[in-house]
Design goal:
about 40% helix, alpha+beta, single chain
Length: about 120
């Protein structure tokens, strides 16, 4: 039985993102790979556009499906022994609020880092 690899796309220029990726790299069980959005090899036409990748966390499953935003974060952490702490964020009672909080945080992070007009993406 082949183990399918998930790939997490992350913003390598974001200190907070880089810190989380460092932690995920240490804790993951070997079936999660990481792709820095800014790396040249990760720029191709099969990926979502770069702005979308920078606005929300994206994970490409081993089956070829995209998981975006809070569900991508939960799925990435599910590759660690701490994944059970994150699963409740997807429960129907919690998810709407958690997704709104994540979305607001992600928008503010993007606006501070990339929507200044002079930074360029």
């Amino acid at each position: 039985m082949e183990i399918l690899m998930d790939t997490l796309f992350y913003d390598g220029k974001c200190p907070l993102c880089a810190k989380e990726i460092t932690t995920l790299r240490k804790l993951q069980r070997g079936n999660l790979t990481f792709a820095d959005i800014h790396a040249e090899e990760n720029r191709n036409e099969t990926l979502p556009d770069r702005e979308a990748l920078l606005r929300r966390l994206h994970l490409l499953t081993g089956d070829g499906d995209w998981v975006v935003g809070l569900p991508a974060n939960v799925r990435a952490w599910s590759h660690t022994r701490l994944g059970f702490f994150f699963r409740p964020l997807l429960w129907p009672v919690i998810y709407p609020l958690a997704a709104r909080i994540y979305g607001n945080w992600a928008d503010k992070r993007y606006d501070r880092k990339y929507a200044c007009g002079t930074c360029g993406i």
